[in-house]
Design goal:
The complex is a heterodimer of chains A (390) and B (333). Chain A is mainly alpha-helical and 390 residues long. Helix content of chain A is 68%, strand content 6%. Chain A is built from 15 helices and four strands. A four-stranded mixed sheet of chain A has the order 2-1-3-4, with helices on both faces. The chains are: A mainly alpha (390), B alpha/beta (333).
């Protein structure tokens, strides 16, 4: 049975490698996936020359204007980071218009009583105008500007308390007694890529097997070649095993490609054991393949098979925490997510690749995947055997 | 060699094969003749262990097709209506792949592949991809693929379907040769009368999933109208209605059909029928260009038995999608 499986797998791979177009697509898919997901999701460091409208309505306080100092500081910070391109605008309405036309992504408005308020011991107000049609971007701008203003506020406060006779060395502690610092479980800098790369790897391998297997079997059934195998004195399971091996090889190839891309192009570092990463992918395939086989058995033709797989794959992609953290989903989605094997594969891979976790730290994920795999296989084998001799 | 008892297959309440019983002797060529959708393919699929029967049993070489399916598989070869070939693999790779599934020893397999390719004159295309082959070449490949394991029983499902006349003749000759030289028992299905007539020792006529008649081609033809039947075809350039009426008036004549302006076909009985008819038309001043004394064909037999022509295919009882190029996969699975 094993040698027949390898024969069938080898034949499938030979067919795959003779299909130039298919091969090109096979390689392009992970590249697209990685580049698109990776570059589209913005991170703070990736903000670059965002057009921001600046309105200075400040009337000043006598000859004195704090707003110009503020703008100078803003400019000097911006010169270092290159995050924004500042354009002057006359008032709030003008800013709104600019956002509507797309000339600006957001705006900063310094109120008319900015200086006078501060000079008279009140708070100076600065309004940030955001583009609601682009929530991701507006959240980002808000966060970045918030930080800038905080810094500037602190600087100003420091000057003020120094004026009150506080030692310059302790002035910072006076205005800002808490220093909050964030640190990760592992040393180093992390980006969104570190979060999604393991997930995308898991997803691509699963998708390969899940869509590839039913498509491959129902295609052979439609063309008639499946009969050629079924009429030979081989174990029925050798067919499914061989096909799975071939699809797995295809999936792992894509997985490796993603890993290489992630490491070379997107600066992802693998902190854990690379062999464990592949072992997890294989375990993931094992947990999935039963489901694929069951669906194959039910699908009448290739078209139905592919449609069924897509229907299942799509929610799985979004619910398994590959792109978005599970924690940000509503409770009912979270409970669906908890029964999807992909969730556990992605989670385990993330733990290994990002946190450098080892097997003992993965007990939950491993046991869930193994249980899921065993149950699905137990269902799939008799169903497939029956379906083959209908 | 093959014993079939009350073999039945139902698909969702539709009975494709209905209590079929027959035996096939060793090294016999047995034909299943019937229109598309009559249940021929389903019988073949059940016998070749691809489909499980709903009822009844069958044994090949003494092995039960359900309980001892792997034993049966060792003995049989299948030439399906669909090509069992991978287009992206070469002729040799295809044969090697399927050969390996039969656990044939490497050296023996290589030798057999070469022999089989030589047999159908495909040796020089050994390393070409099957996808580039013509339909005739593909069908020859399809046949030799089924011979890799030297089967005792070979199933051929519509082996000449869609082939040009030359390839059809080649494939038929090849089938005869396999039967003659290897003593292979052959079961073939066809909807073509002349094919069954030329190839088969015995023919089972199948319609609506039942075998209505089973006999040798010669005996089947006798069935039509007994031994003294005459089918006469005359070509009379100056054919008139009066001549036709005169022929119809004769006692020995059963029916006259006019095929075109100068040709008529006459079914008659009696030893002297031929001469009586000729005399009658000569008396009407007919100028006879040619006269053919035809043997009844299997076409006539089918018409006689089922009351329909084969071209009618099946009837309304079976949904349209069961026919022709749009045939549903449900039936063939």
């Amino acid at each position: 049975m094993i040698s027949h499986s390898f024969r069938i797998a080898w034949k499938d791979l030979m067919e795959l490698f003779r299909n130039r177009m298919g091969l090109v697509l096979l390689i392009l898919m992970p590249i697209f996936m990685m580049t698109m997901v990776g570059f589209i999701y913005p991170s703070e460091t990736s903000l670059n020359s965002v057009p921001i409208a600046l309105v200075n309505e400040d009337a000043g306080f006598g000859d004195y204007s704090l707003s110009s100092t503020f703008i100078m500081t803003l400019n000097s910070i911006n010169d270092n980071t290159g995050m924004m391109t500042l354009t002057n605008a006359s008032n709030l309405d003008a800013v709104r218009e600019m956002i509507q036309t797309g000339d600006a992504e957001g705006g900063i408005i310094i109120s008319s009583d900015f200086t006078s308020n501060i000079m008279s011991g009140k708070q100076g107000t600065i309004t940030i105008v955001t583009d609601e049609s682009n929530p991701q971007m507006s959240a980002m701008i808000q966060a970045v500007l918030g930080q800038v203003f905080e810094q500037m506020g602190t600087m100003l406060a420091q000057q003020n308390v120094q004026g009150l006779g506080v030692d310059p060395n302790t002035s910072l502690a006076v205005v800002k007694p808490y220093n909050v610092q964030a640190t990760g479980a592992v040393e180093g800098e992390f980006s969104y890529f570190d979060f999604i790369a393991p997930g995308i790897m898991a997803m691509t391998v699963m998708m390969s097997v899940m869509t590839g297997l039913p498509a491959a079997i129902s295609q052979e059934r439609e063309v008639g070649t499946l009969d050629g195998m079924m009429v030979a004195p081989i174990n029925r399971l050798a067919v499914i095993l061989g096909k799975t091996l071939a699809q797995m090889a295809r999936g792992i190839l894509q997985g490796v490609l993603i890993l290489v891309l992630a490491v070379t192009l997107f600066g992802v570092t693998v902190h854990g054991n690379i062999l464990l990463v592949f072992a997890l992918l294989l375990l993931g395939v094992f947990s999935f393949v039963g489901l694929g086989v069951v669906l194959t058995s039910f699908a009448k033709d290739q078209e139905t098979a592919v449609m069924m797989m897509t229907t299942i794959m799509f929610p799985m992609m979004f619910l398994s925490g590959v792109f978005f953290p599970i924690e940000q989903m509503p409770w009912f989605m979270q409970s669906i997510s908890k029964v999807l094997p992909l969730t556990y594969v992605a989670d385990a891979l993330r733990k290994v690749m990002v946190l450098g976790a080892d097997i003992p730290a993965l007990t939950t994920e491993l046991s869930v995947l193994i249980t899921f795999g065993v149950i699905m296989t137990a269902i799939a084998v008799p169903v497939f055997k029956r379906a083959m001799t209908r | 060699m093959i014993e079939v008892r009350d073999l039945t297959k139902k698909f969702n309440g539709f009975t494709a094969v209905d209590h079929v019983t027959f035996d096939v002797k060793n090294s016999e060529v047995f034909g299943l003749l019937g229109p598309n959708g009559a249940g021929k393919t389903t019988i073949i699929r059940m016998l070749s262990t691809l489909t499980r029967p709903t009822e009844g049993t069958a044994a090949i070489g003494g092995y039960d097709i359900v309980k001892q399916d792997n034993k049966v598989r060792q003995l049989i070869g299948l030439v399906s209506e669909k090509m069992i070939m991978y287009d992206r693999l070469t002729a040799e790779e295809n044969l090697r792949f399927f050969g390996k599934l039969y656990n044939i020893q490497k050296n023996l397999l290589n030798q057999r592949i070469d022999e089989l390719l030589e047999l159908v004159q495909l040796s020089k295309w050994k390393d070409s991809k099957v996808g580039t082959f013509s339909t005739g070449m593909r069908q020859r490949m399809n046949v030799i693929r089924a011979l890799l394991n030297m089967p005792k029983v070979l199933f051929l499902d519509e082996p000449t379907l869609g082939l040009d006349p030359q390839s059809t003749v080649e494939v038929r000759e090849f089938i005869k040769k396999i039967n003659r030289e290897n003593k292979t028992t052959i079961i073939l299905t066809t909807h073509m009368m002349n094919e069954a007539d030329r190839l088969c020792d015995r023919i089972g006529i199948i319609d609506h999933g039942k075998i209505s008649t089973l006999d040798t081609s010669t005996n089947l033809k006798k069935l039509v109208s007994g031994n003294d039947a005459t089918v006469l075809k005359l070509e009379i350039p100056n054919l008139t209605t009066k001549m036709v009426t005169a022929i119809q008036a004769l006692d020995c004549v059963k029916s006259v059909s006019q095929e075109n302006a100068s040709h008529i076909k006459i079914h008659a009985t009696g030893d002297e029928a031929f001469n009586t008819i000729i005399d009658a038309v000569r008396a009407e001043k007919a100028k006879i260009n040619s006269a053919e004394n035809l043997q009844p064909t299997l076409e006539d037999v089918f018409l006689h038995i089922t009351g329909r022509e084969v071209r009618d295919k099946a009837d309304n009882k079976i949904p349209m999608r069961e026919h022709g190029p749009f045939r549903s996969k449900r039936r063939v699975r």
